Amino acid sequence: MKNITAYKNKKILVLGLAKSGASSASLLHELGAIVTVNDRKPFSENPEAQTLLEKGIKVICGEHPKDLLDEGFELIVKNPGIPYRNELIQDAMKRGIPVITEVELAYQISEARFIGITGTNGKTTTTTLIFEMLNQGNKNPLIAGNIGTVASDVARIATEKNIIVTELSSFQLMGIVHFRPRIAVITNIYEAHLDFHGSREQYINAKKNILKNQTKTDFAILNFDQEEGRQIAKEAKGTVIPFSKEKYLPEGASLKDGFIYFQGEKVIDYQKVVLPGKHNLENILASVASAKLMGVANEHIEQVLTTFRGVEHRLQFVKEINGRVFYNDSKATNTLATKSALSAFNRPIILLAGGLDRGNDFDDLIPSLKNVKALITFGQTKEKLVQTGKKAGIEKIFIVDNVQEAVPLSYALSENGDVILLSPACASWDQYKSFEVRGDIFMGAVHKLV
């Protein structure tokens, strides 16, 4: 870890705790900053705040006081989930107080290089694939960000021999200043998180931040099957490496005659790849490009792609029971992810879907529901999904209270050869703390069937 002095004796507010806030506060305190932590959760229910207080850090819990900024803070480190429309953040911006996120701190103290991965879908799979390929190739990778340990905790232990492979959300990328990944990947861009960003343009701008500090010696891996990817390439300062699952690109990563190629070199027979779903080809191509740019040999890439079957909660195989195959796709928190999951199977599907209502309808799912023989819905969006199912001509549609109830019903409706798929097309927060909790409950219910 670099022992930087930029924060020594600076008054800094850490707004919002959870893992990233607690890590930021501890790190800044260690770097000599005068840290105040503010979190809405009451102190008595806030173990992170209690631990920080024991370290001698000032904590204010239970509310965001309106006069808090009168204390003269020079910097705010914001939890990524707190929107910029928050009154305190708006006040800070009016006062000219810089607002950053934890990943910026991680970059500033890191001795290691970064590979940053963002996009609407496929971030977790791509991040994991890159990590596994680099690991097979003995490149000393560490994994960080949304997928694992908080980036600043990883950066503390990283050396110049390491590569930090980091999954990054648009929320995190809005708060970077100097962050500069050696390789930046944008898997794809679709409409998402408009309740946070306010518009598609602002959402895309947040994603593009991953490229803003790159130079020609860095690499920008972009999806050339999308107009957004091709447009972003025109603005990129780094060396653009395109990927495409639709056409052969000799300058990038693509498919030709059944083989995956990188810059004209045959890497692997695509038939050997075990990760299901056409949508995963995007993730694979971006990962291959990243690994090859870091000097990983084809044999190590092949070792990963012939054994890697997916990450938890993302089209994750759970169990086969009497010819019925169960898949956990709880990470599908928007319709695009659910459409991708549905496209992975050419068998009858019983779909379990529903969750937080963000005001959108689900009619764009209709073309993808052709193999769905039964639909089981739950959560705030259950009625909307019922209407979508009826428009798609699905004859068997059921409403249940939760995922636990959906599993035994799905099994009762199924036959030998069916896929039972949890792919909610919605966030989980109406009923579950996270998509991980939702997926774990689904898998637990599956294992209880027999």
Automatic annotation (TrEMBL):
GO molecular function: ATP binding; UDP-N-acetylmuramoylalanine-D-glutamate ligase activity
Catalyses which reaction(s): UDP-N-acetyl-alpha-D-muramoyl-L-alanine + D-glutamate + ATP = UDP-N-acetyl-alpha-D-muramoyl-L-alanyl-D-glutamate + ADP + phosphate + H(+)
Keywords carried by this UniProt record: ATP-binding, Cell cycle, Cell division, Cell shape, Cell wall biogenesis/degradation, Cytoplasm, Ligase, Nucleotide-binding, Peptidoglycan synthesis
Membrane-spanning segments: none
Localization of this protein: Cytoplasm
Pathway: Cell wall biogenesis; peptidoglycan biosynthesis
Pfam family for this entry, one: Mur_ligase_C
Family: Belongs to the MurCDEF family.
Purpose of the protein: Cell wall formation. Catalyzes the addition of glutamate to the nucleotide precursor UDP-N-acetylmuramoyl-L-alanine (UMA).
Protein name: UDP-N-acetylmuramoylalanine--D-glutamate ligase
Species the sequence originates in: Caldibacillus thermoamylovorans
Taxonomic lineage from the root: Bacteria, Bacillati, Bacillota, Bacilli, Bacillales
